[in-house]
Amino acid sequence: MIGIIGGSGVYEITQKADSVEKKLVKTDYGEVEVSILDIFNKTVAFIPRHAAGHSIPPHKINFRANIDALRNVGVTQIIATNSVGSMNLEMPPGSFVIPDDFLDFTENRDKTYFEDHVVHVDVTEPYCSRLRDIMADCGEVITGGTYVCTQGPRFETPAEIKMFKLLGGDLVGMTGVPEVTLARERAICYNSICIVSNYASGISEDNLTIDEVFEMVKAKESDLLELIYEIIRNLDDDFDCPCRHALNGAEV
């Protein structure tokens, strides 16, 4: 089964499905409402990351419950979407970027499922390269780039953006971590489409507003949905991937 974790710009995906069934899925970390969709005769499980009405702020998202809810309904590969600011002039507003690495500047988030025993999951390639190759063939995207995840909910300062750039960051957002590593801990293939909504603080000449983010995402909504639909068309249920064996050799 294919999982979609979407923020703004993806909520309309349920309207184009041939059928929609909503399930309240229980996990050890809480209950999550999952929409089970029939798209192109494939079963797709969709979770709106910020819940209905975009009501949950990024630092309050129950990432562990979301990933486990998808696993519990049978998801083996996840396509996520994230709205981001750009620190790289070659990744302008309006572009779609598939990252290949991340820097984690979040605080006080539950970042692992393994609280009671020692497990060291490899993240040399934190995002699934198999999914990246499929996604790159499905539309106009930029492949590669380092995603910097901040705690939020505030935007970053110009000095922070300068630091992130010096460390090699290209994109900045608030929701990509620990989602990506939790998926790895559950041996689920995971990759993300980052929608660049604006240039980051200090690069943009204007003050940042959430309206600016929503306006760009709205403008790109149709293109984003078509990209996701094309990815769904090209994903196969019968596959093997190193992500599926992420716990091999990881447990002490």
TrEMBL record:
Gene Ontology MF: a single term: S-methyl-5-thioadenosine phosphorylase activity
EC number: 2.4.2.44
GO cellular component, one term: cytosol
Binding-site residues, substrate: M174, N198, Y199, A200
Catalytic reaction(s) noted: S-methyl-5'-thioinosine + phosphate = 5-(methylsulfanyl)-alpha-D-ribose 1-phosphate + hypoxanthine
Domain of life, source organism: Archaea
Key words of the record: Glycosyltransferase, Purine salvage, Transferase
Pathway, per record: Purine metabolism; purine nucleoside salvage
Nucleoside phosphorylase domain segment(s): 2-233
GO-annotated biological processes: L-methionine salvage from methylthioadenosine; purine ribonucleoside salvage
Residues flagged as site, Important for substrate specificity: E156, I210
Binding sites annotated in the UniProt record for phosphate: S8, R49, H50, T175
Enzyme class: transferase
Family: Belongs to the PNP/MTAP phosphorylase family. MTAP subfamily.
The protein's assembly and partners: Homotrimer.
Family matches, as NCBIfam families: MTAP, PRK09136.1
Note: Although this enzyme belongs to the family of MTA phosphorylases based on sequence homology, it has been shown that conserved amino acid substitutions in the substrate binding pocket convert the substrate specificity of this enzyme from 6-aminopurines to 6-oxopurines.
HAMAP family linked to this entry: MTAP
Role according to the record: Catalyzes the reversible phosphorylation of S-methyl-5'-thioinosine (MTI) to hypoxanthine and 5-methylthioribose-1-phosphate. Involved in the breakdown of S-methyl-5'-thioadenosine (MTA), a major by-product of polyamine biosynthesis. Catabolism of (MTA) occurs via deamination to MTI and phosphorolysis to hypoxanthine.
Protein name (record): Probable S-methyl-5'-thioinosine phosphorylase
Species for this entry: Methanobrevibacter smithii DSM 2374
Taxonomic lineage of the native organism: Archaea, Methanobacteriati, Methanobacteriota, Methanomada group, Methanobacteria
